[in-house]
Design a protein that fits this description.
256 residues, alpha/beta, Rossmann fold, nine-stranded mixed beta sheet, two-stranded antiparallel ribbon, 13 strands, 23% strand, globular
């Protein structure tokens, strides 16, 4: 496809220290996932409040990535439970307002892992800061000492909701996913609905109850070797189709 005809997919970067240098980073697999969705990836390191609207006039969809960092718990009214875990307040400061604006206008949004948690928090939901410590759920973390192929391998199934958006996209009632997260959705924000749960009841995917546009948030990582995973490819294709439809509608609308 001609790059000029592909929808532009905006991917917010993380902010972290690389040695002595403050840097912006993003996993290459997310950029490639945007391409597999049929999009033209646009990585944005950080946006000031007055830059969000100009960026949204360029974008046709948003892909919120996972990250080693967590959303700061002050955004859902809690103190930091484990100060050893990484945070990224720079990313919080602009992605949370970005989420609210994107959903308000109905632009397609695919949110992965931390990205899913950002969506829930941005809309007023809360998170389990340590899923494994709740006494209610299994340990959903991977082990750093394991080889990457083991860390990122499917380890448990999710059960999709009947008549849900996710089941419609992937065409399956249940499927296996990888699991590399210590945090997850606790109280789901108003206006969101569960799309899938793990066997222990933990929310693994959600979408909007109503409103325009495409929103799918998943706790696992469909960007990991998606070509080998039909479910991941179905999710990326569904997101890409929504972005192309947004682009077509944007081109048809008169410019301000």
């Amino acid at each position: 496809m001609n790059p000029a005809a592909r929808p532009t997919i905006l991917l917010p970067a993380c902010s972290k220290m690389l040695g002595a240098y403050s840097s912006h980073t993003i996993g290459r697999s997310y950029v490639e996932a945007a391409r597999l969705a049929g999009g033209l990836p646009l990585v944005v390191p950080q946006a000031q409040p007055d830059e969000i609207e100009p960026l949204l006039r360029v974008a046709d969809g948003i892909l919120l990535t996972g990250s080693p960092s967590n959303v700061h718990p002050s955004h859902f009214g809690e103190d930091v439970l484990d100060p050893d875990l990484p945070l990224d307040p720079v990313r919080d400061d602009w992605t949370l307002p970005l989420v609210r604006r994107v959903l308000a206008i109905g632009m397609p949004l695919l949110a992965i892992c931390r990205g899913a948690q950002e969506v829930n928090v941005a809309l007023g939901g809360s998170l389990h800061q340590a899923v494994h410590a709740t006494g209610r759920f299994a340990d959903h973390r991977s082990r750093d000492e394991d080889p990457l192929e083991v860390q990122w391998a499917p380890v448990h199934e999710v059960l999709t909701e009947p008549e849900g958006r996710l089941r419609e996209i992937v065409g399956r009632e249940r499927f296996a996913v990888n699991s590399l997260h210590g945090q997850a959705v606790d109280r789901l924000a108003d206006g969101l609905r569960v799309e899938a749960r793990a066997a222990d009841g933990l929310i693994e995917a959600f979408s909007t109850v109503a409103g325009p546009g495409f929103l799918l948030a998943v706790q696992w990582h469909p960007e990991w070797k998606p070509r080998d995973n039909p479910v991941s490819m179905a999710i990326l294709r569904g997101f890409g189709e929504a972005c192309r439809a947004w682009r077509a509608g944007r081109q048809a609308r008169p410019q301000a």
